[in-house]
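Input for the complex:
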Amino acid sequence: MNVIEVNNLTKYYGKSRGIIDVSFDVEEGEIFGFIGPNGAGKSTTIRILLSLIYPTSGSAKIFGKDCINYGPEIKKDIGYLPSEVFYYDNMKVIDLLKYSASFYKKDCSKRIKELSEMMDLDLNKRIDDLSYGNRKKVGILQGLLHEPKLLILDEPTSGLDPLMQQRFFNLLREENKKGVTILFSSHILSEVQKLCNRVAIIKEGRIISLEKISTLRENSYKKVTIEVNSPVKGEYFSIDGVSNLEMKDNTISFLFKGDTNLIVKKIAEISISDVTIEEPSLEEIFMHYYTRG
Amino acid sequence: MNIYLREMKSSRKSLFIWCIAMIVFIAAAMGKYAASSYVSGQSLNDIISKMPEAVKSMFGADRFDLSKAIGFYGAMFIYVVLMAAIHASLIGSNIISKEEDDKTAEFLMSKPVSRAKVITSKLLAAITNIAVFNIITMLSSIYFVGYYSKGENVTDDVIRLMIGVLFLQLIFMSLGLCFSAFLKNPKLASPCTVGIMLATYILSLAIDINSHLSGLKYLTPFKYFDAKNLIYEKGFEIIYIVLSVLIISVFIFAAYVFYQKRDLKI
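Predicted:
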């Protein structure tokens, strides 16, 4: 069953681009990564899912229900952590959490206690006095305290120290084991890599790739670095399957995806002094998506 | 209910300050009346009767008997009205837009609550604020005017005046609500509302000074519940009550429609 179905969502803010023709599904029980550089449209997509803003065209469903028409109903089972956390001034942490809990018709006090101990958060401090990282924890708590079936996290880890990140990831894994579906947006690939089953990559408002992490990790990409004896024309390696082509003095490097024979032949035809062919890091694969053009 | 309580909690301090200010203002104003009635031999009316028309109109002296406590109160009542209008404009234009200004809209609206319900809760909180303001002002007026009125019964007059103010408050509150629901940039809601409020006030002054403008009186709520009419003459006029109710309902209805349709500014 699909928990989230996004169909051809397009959003323009006046004339400026938000997202264009975004479609993807998130299955029940999966951790779905949503990856892209800043301004690519991750938050826009998420805000449409929560009907904070309305799409120019297209539609989205959560739990099989249209997210605009059934907004309040489906939000009962959604926990949302916004990318920037601002909360009411003059409120203590516990007051905010109680206010948050008051929207759900269940008793969340036990859960608040559990989570605050796990995340090491002082409930009696005023939110104004908290550091950015601690505010983020408040955000995490208000998103999780009602035991939602779907968690939508918009860049959740920024501001958390490594230890807290670790605890937070463990918490997410536990939730996921209980059957909670997670949509995890981030621009940091390594954290998505640790956690997610599948990723959608969004760039300049469009989904440009949707793959399983395991597929991405497979040896389909080679990172090739060549030292040449005499300069080679730029077009020489501009063949299908080559990306991130860089030439600096006599060093040429690129990523290659495709028939290895082809590229080896290509290399054999020129005079080289050194060559390495290795598995690229996921970061390098993604740079190919991130960089313009 | 939770949103309503949250709003009441967050506005209680400012409401308290407003109420104190109103009590002090009314006490001070009526204290001036006491002082003016001691001016030796010559009553305030005589001094003012020598002033030019425009100045008289500004002080309301052409319409009120300033030698009586209720007349003096009626003349300075416009300031009570203005303060009530400012308070109502600010409450109305801020109560929704502050969630977006303070970036809390994203928190609130991701909870299982419809935008209509958010407006309803906030509207009730705004009305409560306005009602408290009104009642406190009414009670302190009854007390202070009564204190100086030498036994004359002023309660009915004050109650009539304050009912008029309540309509005015509701008009400007709903105008503010409507602006904050409609404008894409919610920061503009309160300057727009206060701006319109002051413009209609100035229009009402212009109408007082220049009788050729009296046809415009329907455009300014400040003319709907004229203190002089409420104290001395006709009392409430049906046309203005109908007009007020109409304006208030249209603004509130529009607020619901606009707010449910627009993108939140996050």
